[in-house]
Design brief:
Elements: E1 8-14, H1 21-30, E2 36-42, H2 49-57, E3 63-66, H3 72-83, E4 88-91, H4 103-111, E5 117-121, H5 132-149, E6 161-164, H6 165-168, H7 180-190, E7 195-199, H8 215-227
Parallel strand pairs: 1-2, 1-4, 2-3, 5-7
Antiparallel strand pairs: 4-6, 5-6
Helix pairs in contact: 5-7, 5-8, 7-8
Length: 230
């Protein structure tokens, strides 16, 4: 199958993103990948996100799945992965920190059969980006993860993770919140797949702008690195 016939499934976990979800979906639609399947998973948002999804987003995307109980990012991704039918699956957060125009550099190594899993690294071949506390936490967690996975990863916590669909659908995801990141990294490493990192851009937002990860998520990540170690 030629690359221009292959389908990219974009899974967007969404929680209380009424101010950004429509703009994000429009950017995804503009991304330079010919065949896209866009799946939004609303994780029981409490603001006006569902109204925006039904009124404005639904005509633009392939599927919207609504959780009636909040399950966290890991739970939303598990739902989205199960719904995907494309050749390759990529994660896209509902905020505007990552640029969908960079999908090709993340997914083309899989489309070209050069890799099975690709992470888009915010830190590869560039200075660390984002706020200091988050940068240092990511630096520590990534290196701790590498000790057990034996991957040469520079950004384990990145949003942009792309997988061959059959690989991600074979993983039993257990973590509900941001523990998904070390869990999926450890489980992918155990599968001995072809892993690659590529550099990407990053436009961090503050807690006041809606960033949801916090100190307790970092503690949970340490636990998950140990729990899912090889």
């Amino acid at each position: 199958m030629a690359n221009n016939e292959k389908v990219l499934s974009i899974v967007i976990p969404c929680y209380n993103e009424e101010n950004s979800i429509l703009d994000l979906v429009k950017k995804v639609l503009e991304s330079p990948v010919p065949n896209k399947e866009i799946i939004v998973v609303d994780d029981c948002s409490k603001d006006g996100t569902r109204t925006v999804l039904e009124r404005d987003v639904k005509p633009l995307v392939s599927k919207i799945v609504y959780h009636e109980v909040n399950q966290g990012k890991g739970g939303a991704l598990k739902t989205g992965f199960a719904a995907a039918t494309g050749d390759v699956v990529i994660i896209q957060d509902a905020d505007l920190e990552y640029d969908p125009m960079e999908y090709p550099q993340v997914v083309n190594p899989i489309f070209n059969d050069e890799a099975d899993v690709v992470y888009g690294s915010r830190f590869k071949e560039s200075k660390m980006k984002g706020y200091l506390a988050n940068r240092m936490a990511n630096w520590f967690l990534t290196r701790l993860s590498n000790l057990f996975t034996h991957l040469k990863c520079t950004d384990m916590e990145t949003c942009y993770k792309a997988f061959k669909r059959e690989i991600i659908q074979s993983v039993d995801i257990q973590e509900k919140r941001f523990g998904f990141e070390p869990e999926i990294t450890a489980k992918v490493a155990k599968m001995n797949v072809r892993f690659k990192e590529v550099p990407i851009s990053y436009y961090p937002r503050t807690n006041e702008e809606g960033k949801k990860i916090g100190f307790s998520d970092g503690v949970r990540a340490i636990y998950c690195i140990w729990r899912y170690r090889k």
